[in-house]
UniProtKB/TrEMBL annotation:
This is ER lumen protein-retaining receptor. It is found in: Endoplasmic reticulum membrane. GO terms for molecular function: ER retention sequence binding. It comes from the Eukaryota.
Length: 215
């Protein structure tokens, strides 16, 4: 554990809290992609298959449970909560994410640290997480205007990935046998996907105006 990873985990946790706050306080999921949330739920379920067989620390186990439970709770609310589901932007959340899942799984079969059940699904979760934000970004571009809580959610999610890059750099220079090439490459790709959003987020912050993305 280092300060970059800890801060990254906290930013990730804050992004989830912001999203849950939006859903439970406003009873609305407008501007949120259900497809992205389903991909994240799949990411955490695949990554933490060893939840009950490998215990690294209490902190690690608690964070695993939190990510799994919250991701499933968000999907549940957007799909089945009688009030929240009414605000779901079904007409513009049409990204074909099945191709992302298939591509990530095929890549995990070819590029992995070890050809074992847990390692393949771990690699699959890393590759899938790298592109899981795509449906959300496409939805925001199609809708144009981004409400404050949705903008904060995506910002903290992107900041989490940025901090994890610093975490990998730190580990590369401090751990003699660090081997995280799968995480590093996927993390760089994922962070690059946020570049356009961060640009317009900074512009809106600088001008103290509402965040708007180009169609």
């Amino acid at each position: 554990m280092n300060i970059f990873r800890f801060c990254g985990d906290m930013f990730h946790l804050v992004s989830i809290i912001v999203l849950l706050l939006k859903i439970y306080a406003t009873k609305s999921c407008s501007g949120i992609s259900l497809k992205t949330q389903e991909l994240y739920a799949l990411v955490f379920l695949a990554r933490y298959l060893n939840l009950f067989t490998v215990v690294i620390s209490v902190y690690n186990t608690v964070m695993k449970v939190v990510f799994i439970v919250t991701s499933l709770a968000i999907v549940y609310c957007m799909r089945w909560h009688r009030v929240v589901k009414r605000s779901y932007d079904r007409e513009i959340d049409t990204f074909k994410y099945e191709f992302l899942v298939l591509a990530a799984f095929l890549l995990a079969l070819v590029l992995n640290d070890k050809f074992t059940f847990f390692e393949i699904f771990w690699a699959f979760s890393i590759y899938l997480e790298a592109v899981a934000i795509l449906p959300q970004l496409v939805l925001l571009q199609r809708s144009g205007n981004v409400d404050n809580l949705t903008g904060q959610y995506v910002f903290f999610l992107g900041a989490y990935r940025g901090l994890y890059i610093l975490n990998w750099i730190y580990r590369y220079f401090t751990e003699p046998h660090f081997n995280g090439w799968i995480s590093c490459i996927s993390g760089l790709l994922q962070t690059a996907l946020y570049a356009d959003f961060f640009y317009y987020y900074f512009i809106s912050w600088k001008n103290n105006s509402k965040l708007q993305l180009p169609a």
